[in-house]
Amino acid sequence: MSRRLALLVGILAGVSLLSIGVGSMALSPSEVWDSLLSGLGFGSAPRVAEAVIWELRLPRTLAVLIVGGGLAAAGVGLGGVYRNPLAEPYLLGISSAAGLGVVIGSLFTPAGVPPVAAAILGAATAVAMALTTHRISAVTGGGNRLILLGVALGLTFLAWTVVIIFVGDNPRLPTFTYFVFGSFGSVTWRHLVVALPLILFGVGVIAARARSLDLMALGDGQARGLGVDVRRSTTWVLIAAGVASGAAVAIAGVIGFVGLIAPYLAARLFGPQHGRLLPAAVIIGAIFLLLSDIVARSIAGSVEVPVGIVSAAAGGLLLTGLLLRSRTA
Amino acid sequence: MLSADRITCRLDDATVVAETSLRVDAGEFVAIVGPNGAGKSTLLAMLAGELSPTTGTINLGDEPLQGISLEVRARRRAYLPPNPLDEIAFTVRDVVTMGRHPWRSQGLADDELVETAMRAVGVEELADRVFGSLSTGEAQLAQVARILAQETRLLLLDEPTAGLDISHQEAVLETLRESTRDFRAVVAVIHDLNAAASVADRVVVMSKGSTVALGSPSEVLRDTLLSEVYAHPIAVVDHPFRGGPLVLLRSKT
Question: How many CB atoms lie within 10 A of CB A24?
């Protein structure tokens, strides 16, 4: 592991402990550590602290971590396939498609059933949308016209999602603000059990295609000339990006810009090779979303701000900068 | 090594290449020349397997090209397409190293060959530069280095000297010529007729999708044929230094 990557892992560990400690019941890092250990049967810690950490903070922190990492991995995969740093699940409309799938899935999930159905339907609609972006790119190319179409479709999906949330008026449906702008407020261990394998699958598949994505930077034709089965790699990466972002949306709602910021910073720090870019982006995505979530929880006193609002505050600026620098129409 | 038997390519009802046959043997340099729109690039793309012929067959070695997997193909032939690369963030060394990709599964991802290929076309000093920051000519040289690093028996290049100054043009052609000495074969689309005459064993003259002449440079580069194909008066004289044909443009009036 390079020194830079080790440093990132260190920062991730620190921010994770901070995330577990921050909240209406503030806990110092040593209290966090004692409670974590006592939950595993080592030593002892105040019962309340242990309960808060194991029932609320730990699942929440892990959820932020995997959602941040999953969205970043999806951003790396999509950016590689379309050779466009703006190609990420939110701007391509993939996250919003997943959102629509999740609310429809929630409508038909009976009370007491784990949120598996909603997550799987969310992942399925996200995969369908990811594969659709490829159809669209046959017409528009992978440039910013594709992004514009993704934004347009994404807004449409979001509108229908909101209509269903209001008209459905169903307690099983997520609340509007927290779903459309993303939140980790209601995450439990049950959500994690569903989302973790899906996100690991997504990250794993993109990692397995890292070298193909490198060669595809030369252009599809030249990559094929060097023996890369471009069609197969593209399909798998799109499926993986869809599954990872769909699972992320299922547990946290629609969160934008993580898939844009993390790959961008990772490329600045680690260069364009996807084998090095991907792990760095996953860690940066997790750090970025953990920080966003900490801000979301603490900026307005006892009221929680949707985490997607915080990530958009930073991501919107980066998008503006990238668009100003971009030379393609 | 490579044989195309009466291949035709139709795109949107237009016949771009019609019933063309070509045999390329080991150790041979074949230049494809002809005016714009003659079908040279389409022919080369079909020979590379990048484009499937509408009718006709192509054999690479003694197997049909279409039946050979992408990976195996990439170990047998290298193809330089005509369009330049996007501005990518990889370094020149990264891009040239990609030429070794087909051999990776064979455990032959040899770094030494990457350095040799870069030296052969004189881009070793650009090795750590970001590809997107290169000039058109430098990028072209780096791409040729990638093709050389691929270490295939057959090299198919569409305008390998595009954007190069005369000394780099000469260096690239000489390097390609050199590679035919160890029984590699080179097929290149070349616009400069005198460059083609100086380097090729055989020249294919294409016009309107068909081969109108095929043979040694002195056999096919003749004033009447060229004047007709290029629709411009052309004179051919003996080259004062190396013998062989020297193609000169006449004025139209």
Answer: 10
* Dist CA B75 CA A100 (whole Å): 46
- Say yes or no for a CB contact (<8 Å) between B70 and A217: no
Q: Do B101 and A228 touch (CB under 8 A)?
A: yes
Phi, psi angle pair for A174, to nearest 5°: -65, 155
The DSSP call for residue B85 is: P
Beta-carbon contacts of residue A231 (< 8 Å; ≥ 6 apart): none
Residues B211 and B187: their CA atoms lie apart, in Å, by 15
CB atoms within 10 A of CB B25: 13
Please name the residue that has the structure tokens 């929630």.
A106
ipTM > 0.95 (yes/no): no
State the Cα–Cα distance between residues B173 and B162, nearest whole angstrom: 12
pLDDT tens track of chain A, all 329 residues?
689 999 999 999 999 999 998 877 778 888 888 888 888 888 777 888 888 888 889 999 999 999 999 999 999 999 999 999 899 999 999 999 999 999 888 887 776 666 677 888 889 999 999 999 999 988 888 888 999 999 999 999 999 998 988 887 777 777 777 788 888 988 889 889 989 999 999 999 999 999 999 999 998 889 999 999 999 999 999 999 999 999 999 999 999 999 999 999 999 999 999 999 999 999 999 999 999 999 998 888 778 889 999 999 888 888 788 778 765 44
Maximum CA extent, chain A: 64
* Residue B245: closest CA among B45, B37, B33, B70: B33
DSSP label of B131: G
Distance CA A241, CA A198 (A): 10
Listed by number, the residues of chain B in 130-169 with a beta carbon closer than 8 Å to a beta carbon of chain A are 150
* B73–A contact, CB cutoff 8 A: yes
Pairing mode of beta strands B63-64, B14-24: unpaired
DSSP B148-183: HHT--SEEEEESTTTT--HHHHHHHHHHHHHHGGGT
Instruction: Using the structure block, give the residue that is written with the tokens 């390998």.
Output: B160
| Nearest C-alpha in B relative to A268 | B89
Report how far residue B27's alpha carbon sits from residue A88's, in angstroms, rounded to the nearest whole number.
Answer: 48
Query: What's this model's pTM, rounded to 2 decimal places?
Result: 0.90
